[in-house]
């Protein structure tokens, strides 16, 4: 389908409607992507919270075991109380971890850790019954209980470490998913934005050419026609849009101008013929007067007859002129109606452009909403980075505690060696403490590495979200450019409506001139009737004069 067969309002609605659909789709995808990214970031937060909670559980278990062995070695009640408090906090944190874990397998593992921890506490309670003296630790019963506690502790540590590793891996995987989703959203936003710009420029080029080229050609043709040249070809008469209707109206002007010129030529020819006949009649009358009175009378009678015929011809010509003027007046009225139809179409076009402007404003509002969603996501990812930094600080603190504990265990081993047989039990405790400190150091190094990975992924997520915000700002600028283009089209439509109103005024002037022609034709007809009556009277007077001359001649002959 050619653009010339579409109304101007339809062209603008198709062009800008397509741009609005593309912008709305881009904004909708941005909102959907932002929400999906928000959910992914929330999952990362959840995994980090659970991982941090598991770290606190491990810390409390470790502290509880330390206090337990110190209490067994020294028999101080204060260490028993500290150990009980640490184990109680570990129990509470395990309960909270189970409540926060929704994944079935990880929840089952957390419950298994909780059961092993309860079994470990039961065995610890049995070990406490031997008291806090070194000789008591050397009994076969104490050694068996200690070995049982150590075995339960190894089993508990393995499951706890496995669960902690799984939380770290899940957080890392979810972070990677979030980064991929954000990058995919950025790529699609850039692609759709570029396509929208290209389509907008192409549509603007073709639509503007489909309007301005015919209008410019029409303006040139109207200028030539206004100069009196009716041979000019009226362009765009085959189009079915508002410009085609304007072309038909201008064609009517051209046809009316041609008919008016023809009528003027006919009137001039009639006037020339009448003038020639009048001159000939005067010559005939002069000849008649020169020949004789009878010739004069005969000439007067003959001229009277000719004047009757001429007046009848003038009357018929006046009637024909009046009828043609009426036809021209009807054509001018029809042209006026066509121009008013064009003016109404221009007003409807202006209303359509206003509606397009409103829709572009709504698309800009949707883009602003997407920008706000992106800002919220950015704030949450910044919070994630802050949480990761805090975790790194906690890991550093744990690492410092492990180093100090290792030093304490070394000092305890030296003191136990100095005590001889009396310090063997305390040496066992110191060795256990040293092993725990070494395990803690290795675990904190692994945690530090994972926390560093999370921080790096978080920084990438922040950069990706910042890029999304930049793309959305570009979309808002494109929406502003479209709104400006719509305003320019509205101004152009108002200019078209003003030109059409001036054309309507021109048709009214044509109607007024045609009415003047009609009035003149009527006056000519009345004058021709008067001439006809006068010529009849002259004929009668000539007959009377002839009779008197005959009578006079008869009297002369008789005398």
UniProtKB/TrEMBL annotation:
SUPFAM superfamilies xref list: Methyl-accepting chemotaxis protein (MCP) signaling domain
Transmembrane stretches, by residue range? 12-31, 188-207
State the InterPro entries in the record: Chemotax_Me-accpt_rcpt, HAMP_dom, MCPsignal_dom, T_SNARE_dom
Broad class of where this protein is predominantly found = membrane
The organism encoding this protein is: Paramagnetospirillum magneticum (strain ATCC 700264 / AMB-1)
GO BP annotations, alphabetical order: chemotaxis; signal transduction
Q: Where is the Methyl-accepting transducer domain?
A: 303-539
Any one of the GO CC terms? plasma membrane
Q: Where in the cell is it found?
A: Cell inner membrane
Under the GO molecular function aspect, what terms does this record hold?
A: transmembrane signaling receptor activity
- Is Nucleotide-binding included in the keywords of this UniProt record? no
Q: Give start and end of each HAMP domain.
A: 209-262
State the UniProt keywords alphabetically.
Cell inner membrane, Cell membrane, Membrane, Transducer, Transmembrane, Transmembrane helix
What this protein is called in its record is Methyl-accepting chemotaxis protein
What's this protein's family per the entry?
A: Belongs to the methyl-accepting chemotaxis (MCP) protein family.
């Amino acid at each position: 389908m050619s653009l010339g067969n579409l109304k101007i309002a339809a062209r603008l609605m198709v062009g800008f409607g397509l741009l609005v659909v593309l912008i709305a789709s881009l904004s909708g995808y941005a909102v959907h992507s932002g929400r999906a990214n928000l959910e992914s970031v929330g999952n990362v937060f959840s995994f980090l919270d659970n991982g941090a909670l598991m770290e606190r559980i491990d810390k409390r278990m470790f502290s509880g075991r330390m206090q337990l062995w110190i209490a067994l070695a020294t028999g101080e009640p204060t260490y028993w109380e500290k150990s009980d408090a640490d184990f109680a906090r570990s129990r509470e944190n395990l309960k909270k971890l189970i409540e926060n874990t929704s994944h079935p397998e990880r929840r089952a593992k957390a419950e298994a850790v909780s059961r092993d921890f309860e079994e470990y506490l039961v065995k610890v309670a049995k070990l406490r019954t031997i008291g806090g003296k070194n000789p008591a630790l050397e009994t076969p019963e104490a050694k068996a209980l200690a070995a049982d506690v150590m075995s339960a502790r190894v089993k508990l540590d393995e499951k706890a470490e496995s669960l902690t590793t799984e939380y770290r891996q899940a957080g890392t995987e979810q972070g990677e998913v979030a980064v991929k989703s954000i990058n995919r959203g950025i790529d699609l936003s850039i692609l759709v934005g570029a396509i929208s710009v290209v389509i907008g420029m192409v549509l603007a080029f073709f639509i503007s050419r489909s309007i301005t080229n015919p209008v410019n050609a029409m303006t040139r043709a109207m200028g030539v026609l206004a100069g009196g040249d009716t041979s000019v070809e009226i362009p765009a008469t085959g189009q079915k849009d508002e410009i085609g209707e304007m072309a038909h109206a201008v064609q009517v002007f051209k046809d009316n101008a041609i008919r008016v010129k023809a009528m003027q030529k006919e009137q001039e020819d009639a006037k020339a013929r009448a003038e020639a006949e009048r001159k000939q009649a005067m010559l005939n009358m002069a000849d008649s007067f020169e020949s004789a009175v009878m010739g004069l009378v005969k000439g007067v009678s003959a001229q009277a007859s000719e004047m009757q015929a001429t007046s009848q011809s003038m009357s018929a010509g006046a009637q024909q002129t009046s009828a043609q003027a009426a036809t021209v007046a009807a054509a001018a009225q029809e042209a006026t109606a066509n121009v008013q139809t064009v003016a109404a179409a221009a007003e409807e076009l202006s209303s359509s452009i206003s509606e397009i402007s409103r829709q572009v404003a709504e698309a800009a509002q949707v883009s602003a909403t997407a920008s706000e969603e992106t800002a919220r996501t950015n704030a949450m990812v910044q919070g994630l980075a802050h949480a990761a930094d805090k975790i790194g600080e906690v890991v550093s603190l744990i690492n410092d505690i492990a180093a100090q504990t290792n030093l304490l265990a070394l000092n305890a081993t030296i003191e136990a060696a100095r005590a001889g047989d009396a310090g063997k039990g305390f040496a066992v405790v110191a060795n256990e403490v040293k092993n725990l400190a070494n395990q803690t150091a290795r675990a904190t190094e692994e945690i530090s590495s994972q926390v560093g990975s999370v921080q790096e992924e978080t920084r990438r997520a922040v950069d990706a979200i910042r890029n999304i915000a930049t793309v959305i700002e570009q979309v808002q600028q494109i929406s502003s450019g479209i709104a400006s283009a719509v305003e320019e089209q509205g101004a152009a439509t108002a200019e078209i409506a003003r030109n059409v109103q001036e054309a309507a005024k021109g048709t009214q002037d044509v109607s007024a001139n045609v009415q003047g022609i009609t009035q003149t034709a009527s006056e000519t007809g009345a004058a021709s009737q008067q001439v006809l009556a006068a010529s009849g009277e002259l004929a009668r007077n000539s007959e009377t004069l002839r009779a008197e001359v005959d009578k006079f001649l008869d009297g002369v002959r008789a005398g």
